[in-house]
Amino acid sequence: MKRILRPRTCRPYPELFEPERGEAPYRIEDSNGRPLPSRGLVNKVERWMFVPLDPWGRPVARHEGGHVRDSPPNLPRVRYDLRILHAVEDARINLGLDWREIPVELDPVALANVRKLAAEDEQRGDLFALVIRSVASIGTNAEADLADLLTLYESQGTFVQGQVDRVRKGLERSRARARKPVAPFGAALRLARKLARELRRAGLLEADGSSSSPMGTGCCIGHGLIDDDEEGGDGGGQLAEAGVAGELHVTRAPLTVSLRGGRLAGRGLGARREGSIIRYAHRWPSDRAIFRGRRRRSSATVLVDVSGSMSLSADSLDRLLLATPAGALVAIYSGRGTEGELRIVASGTRRAGPKHLKPFARGNIVDVPALEWLARQPEPRLWVSDGAVTGVGDHASDAIEERCTAIVKKGRIERIGNLEGTVRRLVDARARRTDVPAVTRQHHRAALRARAARLARKAADADS
């Protein structure tokens, strides 16, 4: 009888880690052969997990189970590179598993791969990636290997090892103080904030807290750069086909500049049929709205896709804000890998300066949660986009497109393909008056358009 050898699969059961049983079982997918930002990914909200389904992938599955047990469903918004918090959170989970005598121990092949990737970080001069990889290895058997490797890198190795020791001691101290197997999540937040401060002092972070390192997100021990162009690589596409959108972080830029475009709309005053101050006597024959009084200021919400396909520069966005009326809410969004940022750049009578209009990344990734945010904002809701939507890995799919289409229809969202059309739409919305004759509305609209054009030309001349 011929013996047939079938590949052995090791499927995890994250439900066993949950303190309370969830409403639905987790959907388990094999991460082998897929260029994901990490070999292990878990989403506690949508209840899916990507791990290697073979014996050597057991440590990865064990680590993701620790996230199911002790990590919050969503990470909070932070003012620094989110990968820093990912690494400290990985260290917290690893130490908790080790204390429960369920250690994360990589096999010799995986250990050699981790050491190889760390050496490549150093050769590439990516000290940020070396710090993140070393911190994420805390609590695993890769920690000692990386510590030996760091001794070869002199001052840089000393700096990295110092950050690792500081994070480990902080987590162990918090765990002992809490008298629990794992340190509280608040300790990870504090240590990540301190680590970001040290990296900024070392010049490894930009002024806004971000890093240009191409290292992926998620569990940061044993993976390299994000590469969606590998032969046969379709992991991000398969995630997107399953309807998995990236994780959205909503932030607010410092609104330090007066929204000059608000002057186009006046100061909330207009013609009324009742009042005490006669200001528009010439309107008596038409509609008798001769009094001047407070009127409800029209508002709008504008969501701008600033991914690479839109080719929008900070100067272009600055010209949009110059023509934006007061009371409007303007936000920009973009993403990379498995996450993205939605940044509010104008609200009320204030707006952000040009230096805060730089895109977070060059991909879409978070179209679905960004449109869900827009659907909850005041009308009219304008979406400045070319209509191309993607999910994790910046891959397009029918599932993501159908979800976005449904959100746009249900939320009464109007899509506009360029900034010029958005400016005209904002001007038209501000000039529309229900109690003003059509001729007056047309005249007022033409005046607003002319003023917006003058402001845009003035900004262009100043830039040149």
Can you tell me the residue ranges where pLDDT is under 50 for at least 5 consecutive residues?
223-235, 261-267, 433-439
Question: How widely separated are the two ends?
Answer: 82 Å
Number of domains: 2
Q: What global shape is seen?
A: elongated
Structure description:
The chain is an alpha/beta fold. It has two domains: 14-233, no CATH class; 250-463, Rossmann fold (3-Layer(aba) Sandwich), CATH 3.40.50. The protein contains 13 helices and 13 strands. The chain has helices at residues 58-70, 82-99, 108-124, 127-136, 142-150, 154-178, 185-201, 235-241, 314-322, 367-375, 398-410, 419-431, 438-463; strands at 27-30, 41-43, 48-51, 247-252, 257-258, 269-272, 291-294, 301-305, 329-336, 339-347, 350-351, 381-384, 413-416. The strands form three sheets. Strands 4, 5, 8, 9, 10, 11, 12 and 13 form an eight-stranded mixed β-sheet that branches. Helix 3 runs parallel beside helix 5 and helix 10 packs parallel to helix 11.
What topology emerges from the helices and strands here?
Blueprint: E1 27-30, E2 41-43, E3 48-51, H1 58-70, H2 82-99, H3 108-124, H4 127-136, H5 142-150, H6 154-178, H7 185-201, H8 235-241, E4 247-252, E5 257-258, E6 269-272, E7 291-294, E8 301-305, H9 314-322, E9 329-336, E10 339-347, E11 350-351, H10 367-375, E12 381-384, H11 398-410, E13 413-416, H12 419-431, H13 438-463
Parallel strand pairs: 1-3, 4-10, 8-9, 8-12, 12-13
Antiparallel strand pairs: 2-3, 5-11, 6-7, 9-10, 10-11
